[in-house]
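Field reference: sequence -> structure
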Amino acid sequence: MHEQLAAYLEEQVGAEHAPPLLEALAFHYGRSDNTVKQIEYLRRAGEAAQKNFANDAALDF
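Structure field:
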């Protein structure tokens, strides 16, 4: 179910995501079996957090 929700969010919003949506995608793909998407969105969410100086959050991703 997590992967289905993440795929739906990804489809509805498009390729460029705001940091809160990146976090949601990282969360839901992170709880799915789709390791390719897990890596992609955990990396992107971590990079977005790092750009906003949210270093603890970046390390968590």
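Note: The chain has one domain: 2-60.
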